[in-house]
Design goal:
- It is a single chain.
- Helix 12 (about 385-395) packs parallel to helix 14 (about 420-435).
- About 40% of the residues are buried.
- This protein has about 500 residues and is of the alpha+beta class.
- The chain is about 45% helix and about 10% strand.
Length: about 500
């Protein structure tokens, strides 16, 4: 009886301990959920996030929510089923296609381009599949970016016309969309299927990703496809026929399925996936190191790195109107995904750093608001009248609330100028000079805006200020002479 009593005490002690651990874990998850909700509500209300987000640990959802509109005109809301263009996150699927074929024994990572394209030019002969995956092939996108809405075959034809690599093969890491076009063409050669059909049959259908596709005609039929908007809120119709470096449309729910498949080795083995999560090596067998002594480079469709002693892999996708991210904290088992249809307004670094801090329960601070977002909010609420002086006062009172950089302000001002919102553009340029009074470029840009609105005296005044700050500014000299001629002719 005595032994039974002690046994019961031991069992009760274990149960109490387990209950305490479970409660601690639940409390931690609740804190994370509350902080994440606070972060994304703050970010959405300050123009930093408009889209859908998922945060999970070992496939258990911590936070999942959608913000804003898929269609600003109809006010249709974004949901986890809304279809976004995922841009370069598509590279994960192209790399997965290669890994699937490699496990099937149909190719080797060391196979050369010449094995797939018999009419290859001499300069391509030493490029391997692995180097295409790792972005160490030496291929660049100089000619690729000159093409207008190219197909994969258009890119291949352009590469075939080149006589040499711009960079030495295998000597350095250089991000190359052209390389991932070649990987997609290799998949087509081996599978004897168009790349979009291969994705459907080998990845999307097995994972029940029913609202994911690289088939352009299918995209137009998706009822829940979101509109994309640029920095100043104009609707942008993004069109691209290239598949491999981009080309895929998907939803938050489908990407959650994709992430779970990665975590459970549903498509390929853990060994193969681990290789995808490693930085590629250069010809000498070394790994690229940045100025801080950290590894950098690229795996197979993933960018691996370490932070605070933890291993991460991630990839984002970016065009003017859409932005996407899948990030994995491999050390702790955290994954997060976001999709937005206001790509240029997304505060990517601010959000990801805040999420990392929340998940690690380390010191967390609200992200700083990008100054371009604050300017846009002010324009929407109060128009351009006295914008420069009003915002300068706001910033001076709360300098730590904003992320301020000269180039983002200038970029916004030029976007407004191209959209014929000249008064607003001038006010934004004026704000830039107020915040950066020693920047010759800021005054040069303001002078250009005044010139475009035929305010020649103010234009000349600001070109002269720019020239004072930078006597080597040839553009300012030319424009001052031009203004003199314009003034004489008008008189």
């Amino acid at each position: 009886m005595k032994h039974q009593f002690y046994s019961l005490l031991i069992v009760l002690s274990i149960l109490t301990s387990c209950s305490s651990i479970s409660k601690t874990q639940t409390d931690k998850k609740n804190i994370q959920t509350q902080l994440l909700d606070s972060l994304f509500n703050f970010s959405h209300s300050n123009g930093m996030f408009n889209g859908a987000v998922l945060v999970a640990k070992h496939d258990s959802v911590i936070y999942k929510k959608s913000f804003g509109f898929a269609n600003e005109e109809t006010k249709e809301k974004i949901t986890p089923e809304s279809v976004f263009y995922i841009a370069s996150v598509s590279k994960q699927f192209t790399a997965m296609g290669i890994m699937i074929l490699q496990e099937q024994g149909k190719l080797s990572y060391e196979d050369k381009i010449k094995d797939f394209f018999p009419n290859y030019p001499e300069y391509l002969k030493n490029i391997s599949v692995r180097q295409l995956l790792n972005h160490t092939s030496g291929l660049t996108d100089t000619e690729y970016y000159k093409l207008t809405d190219p197909s994969n075959n258009d890119v291949l034809e352009t590469l075939m016309k080149q006589n040499s690599l711009e960079l030495a093969n295998g000597k350095m890491f250089r991000y190359s969309n052209s390389g991932y076009v070649l990987l997609a063409l290799i998949i087509e050669k081996i599978s004897k299927k168009p790349i979009d059909q291969f994705f459907n049959q080998e990845i999307f259908e097995p994972l029940k990703m029913q609202n994911t596709t690289a088939t352009k005609t299918a995209v137009e039929k998706f009822f829940k496809k979101v509109n994309g908007y640029n920095l100043i809120g104009s609707k942008i119709e993004y069109k691209s026929s290239v598949i491999g470096p981009g080309g895929i449309y998907s939803t938050l729910n489908d990407l959650e399925k994709w992430n779970k498949a990665l975590n459970t080795n549903k498509l390929i083995s853990e060994k193969t996936l681990n290789e995808a999560f490693k930085n590629g090596k250069l010809n000498e067998g070394s790994i690229a190191i940045n100025m801080n002594g950290q590894e950098y480079g690229y795996g197979f469709g993933w960018m691996p790195y370490q932070k605070n002693g933890k291993k991460y892999v991630q990839h984002d996708g970016y065009v003017e109107s859409y932005r996407s991210l899948i990030k994995k904290n491999i050390t702790d088992g955290y994954d997060y995904i976001f999709l937005t249809n206001q790509g240029a307004k997304l505060a990517m670094n601010e959000l990801t750093n805040s999420i990392d801090a929340i998940l690690e329960l380390s010191k967390y601070q609200k992200p700083k608001i990008p100054i371009a977002n604050k300017i846009l909010m002010e324009l929407k609420m109060n128009g351009s009248l006295n914008l420069a002086s009003n915002l300068k006062d706001v910033i001076d009172k709360n300098p730590n609330d904003y992320s301020i950089d000269e180039s983002s302000i200038n970029g916004l001002a030029y976007t407004l100028l191209r959209d014929n919102q000249t008064k607003s553009a001038i006010e934004v340029f004026k704000l830039n000079t107020a915040l950066n009074p020693k920047s010759a470029n800021a005054f040069d840009s303001l002078a250009e805006a005044y010139f475009s609105s035929k305010q020649f005296n103010l234009s000349k005044e600001n070109y002269q200020k720019s020239l004072e700050l930078n006597p080597e500014n040839k553009n300012a000299k030319v424009m001052i002479e031009r203004i003199g001629k314009e003034t004489e002719e008008n008189n």
